[in-house]
Amino acid sequence: MTSLQLTSPRFEDGDPIPHEYGYTERNANPPLEISGVPNDAESLALVVDDPDAVEPAGKVWDHWIVWNIEPDTETIPEGWDAAEAIEGRNDYDDRGYGGPNPPDQEHTYQFQLYALDERLDLDAGSTKNDFQSHIHGHVIDDAQLNGTYAP
User: Which class is 5-149 in CATH?
Assistant: First the structure.
């Protein structure tokens, strides 16, 4: 049974993400709230991606990869400076958050939170593929929040 939960005070699961968080707008991450972290978690990690980008971009578009978030974190504030965690490279070829920017129609964005049994020894700027290979066998629990965004 999953106890880990990821929510946002700015949008409900499956609802539209406010436009201010888009790549061509403020390009700041929406605030997120975390609860139900397992007691044996050593770190948290977050991936934000767009599986609907496969048709226009030819792949799932990675918007944010961040790991080694302290397990007692309850809030990721809007426009978070992830100085105490490590951020990977998104598909805008940048480190940090890159907001929604669908080129064609409304897309659904996945905010995936992982509770891990270790801190990751992974260089800043690593890709989602690097991240996924490092978390294999170390995920204790996970949670997902979905939001939509239209051009």
Answer: alpha beta
